[in-house]
Amino acid sequence: MDKTASTDHPIHELLAQRWSPCAFDSRPVSREDLRCLFEAARWAASSYNEQPWHYIVATREEPAEFARVLSCLVEPNQEWAGTAPMLALGVASLNFKRNGKPNKAAVHDMGLAAASLTFEATARGIMVHQMIGIVPDKARERYAIPAGFEAITGIAIGYLGNSNQLPAHLRDRDLAARTRRPLREFVFGGTWGNPAPVVQS
Fold first, then answer.
1. Where on the phi/psi map is residue 48: left (φ > 0), alpha (ψ -120 to 50), or beta?
2. All domains of the chain, ordered by start, with CATH?
3. How far apart are CA 114 and CA 128, in angstroms?
4. 87-136, pLDDT tens digit by residue?
5. How many angstroms separate the CA atoms of 130 and 152, rounded?
6. What is the rounded distance in angstroms from the CA atom of residue 90 to the CA atom of residue 72?
7. Checking phi first, is residue 13 left (phi over 0); if not, alpha (psi -120 to 50) or beta?
8. Following CA atoms 44, 45, 47, 51 in sequence, which dihedral angle do they give, to the nearest 10 degrees?
9. For the chain, percent of residues with pLDDT exceeding 90
């Protein structure tokens, strides 16, 4: 299924091809490929090079551990994410190691790591579905996540499955056309809400 974005301006083909499916194939992702995805995350930019991202991961080859990660997702996400060959929780360090003060860039920087991971995955023909729908308190309890760290996202990783085999509400979501706001709705100049000259035709 080709869901390449119909962009208003040219962008890198991997960015145009990336999307977040609910249908995953049962085929496992090789350990070598998974290591490369997390290596891409490792080299993301971060404030003061703090690298505040951490991941708790499990593959379906470890059924008990996989079920433990899955249990930390909200129920609607458990419905489809359980078919992915790998699940992960993204955990952010909320304070700077250098001085113990709150790191206001932590979640932003973890997002940069996730974007790098996703870009690398797309280059390898691997799909990634990021989710905010997790239960952070359950993750803290089940993994003894210490104070100063917080589970922020869930991540499903695998190969694209058959969306037609999903329940109707998920199938429609997978098959729907991809849409985005136009640039003029979020790139401003002068005053808030005023499209910047650079994005006006």
1. left
2. 13-170 (3.40.109.10)
3. 9
4. 999 999 999 999 999 999 999 999 999 999 999 999 999 999 999 999 99
5. 10
6. 12
7. alpha
8. 20
9. 99
